[in-house]
Amino acid sequence: MLSGRRYRLALTLEQEVMCEEFGNVCRAVWNTALEQRREYRRRGAWMNYAPQCAELADAKRDHPWLKAAPSHALQQTLKDLDRACREHGAFKVRRRSKARWSPSFRFPDPKQIQVERLGRRWGRVKLPKLGWIRFRWSRALGGVIRSATVSRKAGHWFVSFLVDDHAVTPERHAMPDTAVGIDRGVKAAAVTSDGDFHDRSFIRAGEAARYRRLQQRLARARKGSTNRRKTITAMNRIMGRVSDRRTDFCAQTACRVVARNALVGLEDLRVKSMSASASGTAGAPGVGVAQKRGLNRAILDKGWHRLELALSSAARYTGTTVVKVNPAYTSQRCSACGFVSESNRESQAVFRCKNPGCGHTAHADVNAAVNIKHAAGHAVSACGDLGASRSTKQEPISRATGRTSKTARSAAPGIPAP
């Protein structure tokens, strides 16, 4: 099984300059190749990895600065671009901006990578053109190295090894009859159907105050100046620590959840669309933009997508099945009787069923998590019904066949096969 191991590098001044140069060359190759693909698409033609790799070899004769970076790193950049264009399309793939993109490059050939342990806390790795580089030995490799990626984050350089740890996904979970539903929110990052609340603050009060001051300083700094670059570096360091805490929280939460449950249910949330910026309503531009901006920040701060990735990664080692369910009506449905009503949720935290024969009361997030757990174990219709009761939103039925139309079936999120 492939897994990642990241270590912090201790570069010399010469090696740091070389890494910066390698990153700039890879960025230039990415942007040039992307523009070439877009131009070919405008003319109705197609460009892929093989001809671009051949043209790169010819371009090195005309542009000697391309020879500064290792050939394998440049070829890997073209491979990454080819995969991105095939998955998303050439016009949806972003250019790599010098101001916003963090330098990174990959060495895909394990034969050119050598790792040695120097002591209890230090090791060293030999990479093409960079030579031997010391790094903090924070954990064992635990497998055979497949590739190495050098990247910069928050002012520090790191090396990430892709290793094969020879682990195999168990055919069956240790507790096969266990299941849990997880409701992701902005008050608590994750709430389980067992009643567990997983949450923490990722930025401290002092860091938030300093970050606001740096934002004010950045607004007054002249573009391209040294002070502006220093301010951005200081901001990146704060956000780097925040990002590391969020990653650690998601990883720990995912490990706890998959270790105890054979089935994990998650809402099929499109986080990118939910956190898209708002431009106001059509009739009144600018209305509600501030509120939407605050909601977007809260969604991104809790790391919904990162938790989903962490669960999928950790589930490989326990045999846990992660199922995405239709999120419709999970917060409005009573988990006890199945009654659906907008008035059931009285507030962010209070859920009280308005069905005269029920009256079930629970924490709103826990009730939603229980609904998600039930949906993860049963088929869910496209209109979001999780029980026997029916909602007013129904799929169109074909008069000729008496079945749901093909268009409606293709639009239904449903539950993927485990």
From TrEMBL:
UniProt entry tagged with the keyword Oxidoreductase: no
This protein's name: RNA-guided endonuclease TnpB family protein
Annotated region (Disordered), positions in chain: 388-418
GO molecular function list: endonuclease activity
Cas12f1-like TNB domain boundaries: 304-372
Biased composition (Polar residues): 389-408
This protein's UniProt keywords: DNA recombination, DNA-binding, Endonuclease, Hydrolase, Metal-binding, Nuclease, Transposition, Zinc
InterPro entries: Cas12f1-like_TNB, Transposase, Transposase_put_HTH
Family to which the UniProt record says this protein belongs: In the C-terminal section; belongs to the transposase 35 family.
Domain Transposase putative helix-turn-helix: 1-43
Domain (Probable transposase IS891/IS1136/IS1341): residue spans on this chain: 170-276
Superkingdom classification of source: Bacteria
